[in-house]
Batch of 2 targets.
Target 1
Amino acid sequence: MSLHGKTFLVTGAGSGIGRAVARQLLREDARVVLVGRRATALRESAGAAADQQALVHPADIARPVEAAGAVRAALNRFGGLDGLVNNAGLARFGPLADADPNDLTAMLDVNLLAPVHLIRAALPALRAAGGSVVNVSSVGGVLAMPRRAVYGASKAALNSLTRSLARELAPRVRVNAVLPGPVDTPMYDDLGLAPQQVAQLRDDMVESTPLGRFGTPDDISSWVCRLLDPEAAGWVTGALIPVDGGRTS
Ligand SMILES: NC(=O)c1ccc[n+]([C@@H]2O[C@H](COP(=O)([O-])OP(=O)(O)OC[C@H]3O[C@@H](n4cnc5c(N)ncnc54)[C@H](OP(=O)(O)O)[C@@H]3O)[C@@H](O)[C@H]2O)c1
């Protein structure tokens, strides 16, 4: 991969898919800005690279000023930005009738508006570098999602943003999305469901996935990194790539 020496900002880098992306980029000798709310988790992701090849930047990206601050910190530290990975996400499942309105707003803030603010803040640097954006969306953005309608809607909106910005920002900046199917991450510990509901959900997901298993964070990070790599994906923009064990086939 030709990611060596390049600089990438990864949101949600303290766990799950974001941690796998940050670690793969560090293995490729890239410089990585790890963003999330929990400093300890970010430092664990960065490991020995913290303070040298990696910058740990705790921030709540649902706050536009903190999102812009994360981009500023990346530029101050590394002098440029070659890629932005909008991976942080929030999922609250359950019937709409029972939903907490604050959760609905928070899903739109984290899953849609935070990427918008981060892309805006990063744009001058991405243009200067000829860089790219990868949005970590979901198969929930293309499938009907009963009992998780607003989560699905936030990801459908992210897909739309990806396609429109790919055209708006071409030819200088590429914009793509990866759409994971079910992936084994801490997201399942924080869905707002009872443990037996989570167990049932996980069984249903495996059953509806042709390849018959949950994905791993590395199954997703390899595609994110491929899309960031101009040698592998220099002629790819506006793509919504399902990495989902066949769930949307
Ligand atoms: N796992 C799946 O089955 C699956 C399927 C399809 C799509 N996805 C998508 O994949 C992405 C990564 O999720 P994951 O599965 O890896 O789950 P995860 O481990 O729960 O990761 C979510 C990350 O987002 C960060 N985050 C949440 N709110 C934030 C905020 N306001 N500011 C900054 N960071 C915030 C969290 O860090 P802090 O709590 O430290 O802030 C956490 O590290 C999400 O966009 C999710 O929608 C996951």
Target 2
Amino acid sequence: MVEVADQDLLSAPVLARDDVVTLTSCSVVNQSAFANNNGLPIGALVDFKPPASLQLPQISRQPARCRACAAYINPYCKTSNVLGAWQCSLCGQGNVKKDFEGAVLTGFSELCEESVEYVFAAPTQSPPTAAQPHLVLVIDATLDSSMLEGMATGLIEALSSLEASTRISVITFDSVLSLHSLTSDSNFSFTMPGSKPLDLALLAAYLSGEVSGVGGVKAVFTLDIKLALPRILTLLQTIRPMEEDQPMVWRARCLGLAVEAGLRIMSASSPVRQKPATTSRYSQRLPRGSRLVLITCGPCTRGPGTLSQAALESGAAYHERVSGLGHEYKQQATAAQEYIASCVDLAKALAVPVDIILGGGLKVNAPLLSMLSRDTQGSLMLHRGFGPTFGAGLRSCFSRCFGSSAVLDCFVSDGLQLVQWLGPVNVLQSPEPEDVGLSMASDRRLSGSACSVARLQEGHGVALRMEVVRDLKAPAVLLQVVLQFIDPSIGGRLVQRVTTRRISVVSHIKEYLDSVNATATSVLLAKKAVLDAKRLGALWESTKADELRLSLRAQLALIASRCCPEVQLSKGMLGLGARKVRQWPRSLTLVAHTLYQLQRAVMLGPPTHAPSDWARVHADDRLISMNTLLYSSSIDVVRMLLPKLMCWRDGTFKELPPIDILAHHFYNKDIGRFLMLDCGVSVIVLPRISLAVPNSGESLTGMMPLSDEQLSDLKALVMLPEAGAWQAPEVRFVGQSEMREVYARLFPAGKDTISDLEGLHPGIRAVLKDEDIDQFLKVSVGQNGADLTLLQWCSAAGVMLSFQTI
Ligand SMILES: [Zn+2]
């Protein structure tokens, strides 16, 4: 082994990058038995962020990698510029690096910063073609008139943001399929029957112009967006809702055919046709940015891909998991699945993602739609009712993808091992070099932990979980995460983002607990609970969901029993009736809150799904929520687990999605003045006192600054009490360029006694008058007396929460 001397570099501080790879704790307890079994996971979060937002040092030389374990050189390696050598900080292997000889090592950013990006141009790949992307819109024409307007406004807003030369085609569907010609002098449409398989010959005749419109005018189905926008606007305005007397879910909708037709239009108008020498499959990759966007409010109810109403209600969409299902229903479900799989193949051959936007929500046959979006690397988004944020959401959907063919890899020090990846990752299947861009790197080695990410999207992220395999003796262990992807924006360059995080080894529990990142831990616990729920079958079996909820409480009790001191509440008489509880650490309140929220959130909480119970929390709703949580970046996971905001309107409280709060306000000035937070069955009514935003300096950073007027509007809107009078509420704004989201953190109070409330919210008496308290308690009782509040739920697990803000 090459002996490597300490270098002056070691004394220099390393620039830590917690925003690239976030550790659940920057320390770990040296005893493996405790480290692995205290209920707090050891792991990290990796959010997918485009290079521009991270601004990491860019290195164009090939990375130095350990010849034994393949790890990348990092600031924790011992290096010598005399010997031209370095020692791997993960396995201890000595390595030679000629570049170091006689060099000033502080000039190597990979030796000074935890996160760097190695960037290689693509030498062999041709520059991206000048061809313009093709966008196909497939729009459900069965929306309610109230939703149509919001959808049209948002859609036009998003389309206007695209490059003027983007080519666009529009299809609408209800009981029939309509292909729309888009020029101003050919504003007519062709229809095709919705209940039969697609007539390919007829479609080809339409597309080739063999069939023309009135007066022999030729149809133009694909046109530059700039020229097509006026026609699309009129088109959207002329959609007349059908069957409005029918429930939205059962209106006639030939969704499957519309998707197939959209893909075939793309294929027919594709300028690029190539047959790679390596594969026999005919490939027609469309220009980058091409996509099919499906906007719908319900499931496929006509033509191929349909499940009958009875089949859908019996749970046939989940046929692989639901027991006792009729043969006929199973057959229907299999046929629908096969048809959608054939559409997926079409999309894959064109390399276009199918993005699905759901405006309804319930009973959409989510397994089928999820398959269509997931397998084509698209995304599935919920925009119930197409509110004012729909346009912004769609716009970000158009621009979110920043890399393709990514490989995620992980190296750890001796003594640690990777247990699980949680998120939008797939098993790595013997990658073809050109697929993962590895041909551009001289060293193509991957560890056994590597997995692939089909398409990198901003707003998505993964979590990883580790274990300690033996008692740790070293003062620290290391975790190295490598994300490599093709960045198509600059001529298809390969980016290798290497991050090395140091985890100190400590011997005291207190030292460990002080270093736990409660937010990251909560996100990891939430992703794990959701993945466990999917694997267990909690989606469709209420008993499994019950088990999972109990296991969340057991987890709380486990953390308490291992990490928290015992407190005697009462001595009892002669040793009888003595009561002891565990005092939960203040720094981990968010973890308790997350576990509580998880067991009552839509995806796991009551009311559970049972075949007779579809109308309450539908399995589709659960599946979409679960996938969203599993794939989302950490900030979105935190947001999903926060209480909901309710708004007093028309004599009742209505749920207000956090994302819509500001939008609602700035678009609709008539919003009710009462807002309250729903904590399941327990609610907090916010008193009518204007607010000085707590910690405003801190909370408002990282967002577009609000004008004074907007800020005072917001204060009046949210109506939180004066800072200091009530500690719990905290309002934060998230978002890079637009303040689209507000989120609030509050303790559920509900049925807790007034003295508990006063403990949680010191000063509550000062802001609530007696009659307010009456009202507060009245609405707090909720509809389902069986639900527990946070305090009660923790208490049932033998845990006492500290009274403080989270
Ligand atoms: Zn090594």
